[in-house]
Write a structure and sequence with these properties.
It is a single chain. By secondary structure, the protein is α/β, with parallel strands linked by helices. Helix content is 39%, strand content 19%. It has helices at residues 20-34, 59-66, 85-97, 120-134, 188-198, 216-230, 244-253, 256-278, 297-304, 320-329, 333-336, 343-346, 358-368, 371-379; strands at residues 5-9, 42-46, 49-53, 74-81, 104-111, 139-140, 147-153, 158-161, 165-166, 178-182, 202-209, 236-242, 283-284, 311-312, 382-386. Strands 1, 2, 3, 4, 5, 6, 7, 8 and 9 form a nine-stranded mixed sheet that branches. The protein has a six-stranded mixed sheet with strand order 14-13-10-11-12-15, sandwiched between helices. Helix 8 (256-278) packs across helix 9. The relative contact order is 0.13. The structure holds adenosine-5'-triphosphate and magnesium ion. Residues 184, 186, 344 line the site of magnesium ion (MG). It is an enzyme of class 2 (transferase). InterPro entries: Rossmann-like_a/b/a_fold, ThiI_AANH, ThiI_fer, ThiI_N, THUMP_dom, THUMP_ThiI, tRNA_STrfase, tRNA_sulfurtransferase_ThiI. Keywords: ATP-binding, Cytoplasm, Nucleotide-binding, RNA-binding, Thiamine biosynthesis, Transferase, tRNA-binding. Residues 60-166 form the THUMP domain.
């Protein structure tokens, strides 16, 4: 006997009513795509659960990958048996014996198949008794067991599991549309991208760079960050915007206190234009209220003026320490702290206004007349597509519905 399946629970998805099928198909497709490197495994849907059939593959690297897939609430190694009491007893015993050094246990039966002849309570007792008789040193503790042997009796078969691993939670990437992530080389924006993906959103990225003031290595940093983010979703297209001319013009011709505001307005204008071109309906940033002087309410008010696209700011309520903790968890932190400067850190005005006014920002922008330069930057965007390591070409999701 061996653990031959991984049982996937998707919690939140159960609430999605008639959209549920779409969510489930996307989740199944995302799991398949992440597990491409294991050609023997298959991914099946069954009422309320998903199963990875291992076909002899080592489950542990597969479970590690599953822990990064949004939409998975929790997962467990499982043994599949026929709906037969003797077989179920054997599987429960195997699960307990392989649960590690656990002293106390309880059995929890879920009888989804109401046709199964033994009722839930009775089955709990029969299996508990069987485990006590056939092991030594184990005790039952129904309130705080070290391990729960879960037995799900379903129409087609019974699945027996022991330990439960926490999944990434959230919604399957690809079920909530697409957002354009403004990706700098800093700590915050990759975390913002990750959190947006957690809500099921696919992302493309935009990065503003100012060669030769910013180096190739700063650009590479952004590519490496995007590569880390693909672990949680699909491939990511990065739009690299040449920003040197615009930035120089803005910093020469705008009163010092407003150059930052006008520059950020230019970034949002370009981002919105990319959204229009790509059919993307929102922009995501790593902005966080009050973290730095440029991120005040007044500053957001003055910058946001140029677009009525929804701006997702998933970090808005977070403390820096929380953001850093997530960036370490998702392995972007070490890349973000590489010392190569982005365009915003190089062109920093001496004294940026912490409380810029919309009207003044508009006025200085009009004085600049930078529309042609914005268009030129848009015309010279370079795109890079960062593929997910494990994923190959995505199956068409619509075709499956
Ligand atoms: P981060 O750590 O993400 O760089 P930050 O704390 O440095 O953020 P700001 O410099 O005020 O904050 O930038 C706010 C947001 O603007 C960033 O989180 C990012 O979404 C966007 N942004 C800033 N610089 C760039 C850039 N060069 N390219 C693309 N987006 C940028
Ligand atoms: Mg930054």
């Amino acid at each position: 006997m061996e653990f031959d399946h991984i049982l996937i629970r998707y919690g939140e998805l159960a609430l999605k009513g008639k959209n549920q099928k779409k969510f489930l198909i996307q989740l199944q497709q995302n799991i398949r795509s992440k597990l491409k490197q294991f050609p023997n495994v298959s991914v099946k849907r069954s009422q309320g659960r998903m199963f990875i059939v291992l076909h002899g593959e080592n489950p542990y690297p597969i479970m590690d990958i599953c822990k990064t897939i949004f939409g998975i609430h929790s997962l467990s190694l499982a043994i599949k048996t026929p709906n037969d009491l003797t077989e179920i007893k054997n599987a429960a015993l195997y699960a307990l014996q392989n649960a590690g050094n656990k002293e106390t246990f309880k059995v929890s039966v879920k009888r989804i198949n109401k046709g199964f002849p033994v009722h839930t309570m009775e089955l709990n007792q029969i299996l508990g008794g069987h485990l006590l008789t056939n092991t030594s040193g184990h005790k039952v503790d129904v309130h705080h067991p070290d391990v729960t042997i879960k037995v799900e009796i379903r129409a087609e078969a019974t699945y027996v599991t022991s330990s439960v691993l926490e999944g990434a939670g959230g919604l399957p990437v690809g079920t909530s549309g697409k957002s354009l992530l403004m990706l700098s080389g800093g700590i915050d924006s990759p975390v913002a991208g990750y959190l947006t993906m957690k809500r099921g959103v696919d992302i493309e990225a935009v990065h503003f760079h100012s060669p030769p003031f910013t180096s190739e290595r700063a650009k590479q940093k952004v590519i490496d960050l995007a590569e880390k983010l693909t672990a949680f979703g699909h491939k990511i297209k990065i739009h690299m915007v040449p920003f040197t001319k615009l930035q120089q013009k803005i910093f020469q011709d705008t009163p010092n206190g407003y150059s930052m505001t006008v520059m950020r307005r230019a970034m949002f204008r370009i981002s919105e234009a990319i959204c229009r071109r790509e059919g993307i309906l929102s922009i995501t940033t790593g902005e966080n209220l009050g973290q730095v002087a440029s991120q005040t309410m007044e500053s957001m008010h003055a910058i946001n003026d140029v677009t009525n696209y929804p701006i997702l700011r998933p970090l808005i309520s977070m403390d820096k320490q929380e953001i850093i903790r997530i960036s370490k968890d998702i392995a972007t932190y070490d890349i973000s702290i590489r010392p190569y400067e982005d365009c915003c850190t190089i062109f920093v005005p001496k004294a940026p206004k912490t409380k810029p006014k919309r009207d003044r920002a508009r006025y200085y922008e009009e004085q600049l007349g930078y529309d042609d330069m914005i268009q030129e930057a848009l015309n010279h965007i370079e795109t890079v597509v960062i593929e997910n390591n494990a994923a190959e070409k995505q199956d068409s999701f619509d075709g499956l519905l």
